[in-house]
């Protein structure tokens, strides 16, 4: 009966551990995503934001949690840049004289170069990385918003056309490549033998799926372009919901199982000690009694359980 209970507990514990392990693997491979809406209130001198979560949880996000940079553009020429840092901000003031927050963002050299190249391609800054100011009287203003890294990337044109997919996270892009090579039947013994299309993209004839360098196949998402008018805009974003993980099991079940496991270990240790003592008694009975009768373990021999075992052993030795 006790053995059946232990087997049931062991099975429950194995199941709980397995689910926990799967949860960890899911975070690394297919991360748990939560869709939210970044609502922008465009005013004359400010952009006010509110993050709307379509799912109920305890997470509170601010505009600066999702926005990395804001560029103010006049007649297709950038005139000001706002950088978002660790400070929690919801309102971004566009006019210098009414700017109420000092937002400083320490970007890496790679991030700076990426942003600079994008702006040069859009003809918004000069070769000296200085904003190009407009002198025209009829000024048309708009803002460009660069979102923070949300784990979603733009697939480069050739691969995008091949996979019929424009964006995705790294895991989904690899899965799409895996599906493509299987559909084209160009994979044998775990190795991809590239057809002409893949050879042109990867610049290699054969490769293992895990050796594909995605960095060369993806690029940052385009900037979000919004006219600077008194309007409301929603940007749908998808990000890791790292605060509220789904509960796969009740935590109290785990604590009960842990407590039961500790109790079982304690019983096992006690039984092993008794076995050791009894083995020593069987092998060298007289020496054992002499040694233990002279030390502080006399109480051991007054233990009813020990007395019963000694009696049973003596009966068998007759």
UniProtKB/TrEMBL annotation:
CDD domains: SWIB_like. It comes from the Eukaryota. Residues 153-213 form the DM2 domain. It holds the Pfam family SWIB. InterPro entries: SWIB_MDM2_dom_sf, SWIB_MDM2_domain. SUPFAM superfamilies: SWIB/MDM2 domain (SSF47592). This is DM2 domain-containing protein.
């Amino acid at each position: 009966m006790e053995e059946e209970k232990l087997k049931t507990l062991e099975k429950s514990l194995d199941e709980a551990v397995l689910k926990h392990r799967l949860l960890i693997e899911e975070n690394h491979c297919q991360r748990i995503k939560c869709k939210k809406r970044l609502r922008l209130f465009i005013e004359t001198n400010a952009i006010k934001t509110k993050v709307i979560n379509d799912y109920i949880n305890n997470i509170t996000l601010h505009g600066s949690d999702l926005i990395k940079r804001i560029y103010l553009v006049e007649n297709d020429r950038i005139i000001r840049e706002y950088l978002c840092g660790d400070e929690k901000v919801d309102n971004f003031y566009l006019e210098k004289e009414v700017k109420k927050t000092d937002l400083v963002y320490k970007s890496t050299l790679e991030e700076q170069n990426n942003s600079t190249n994008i702006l040069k391609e859009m003809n918004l800054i000069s070769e000296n990385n200085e904003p190009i100011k407009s002198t025209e009287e009829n000024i048309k203003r708009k803002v460009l918003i660069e979102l923070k890294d949300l784990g979603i990337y733009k697939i480069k044109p050739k691969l995008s056309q091949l996979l019929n997919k424009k964006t995705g996270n790294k895991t989904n892009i690899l899965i799409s490549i895996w599906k493509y090579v299987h559909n084209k039947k160009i994979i044998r013994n775990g190795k991809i033998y590239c057809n002409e299309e893949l050879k042109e993209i990867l610049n290699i004839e054969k490769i293992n799926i895990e050796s594909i360098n995605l960095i060369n196949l993806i690029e940052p998402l385009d900037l979000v372009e919004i006219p600077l008018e008194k309007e409301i805009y929603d940007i749908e974003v998808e990000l890791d919901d790292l605060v509220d993980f789904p509960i796969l099991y009740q935590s109290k079940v785990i604590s009960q199982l842990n407590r039961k496991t500790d109790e079982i270990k304690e019983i096992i240790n006690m039984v092993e000690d008794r076995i050791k003592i009894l083995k020593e008694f069987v092998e060298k009975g007289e020496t054992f009694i002499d040694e233990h009768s002279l030390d502080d373990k006399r109480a051991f021999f007054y233990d009813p359980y020990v007395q019963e075992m000694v009696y049973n052993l003596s009966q068998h030795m007759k």
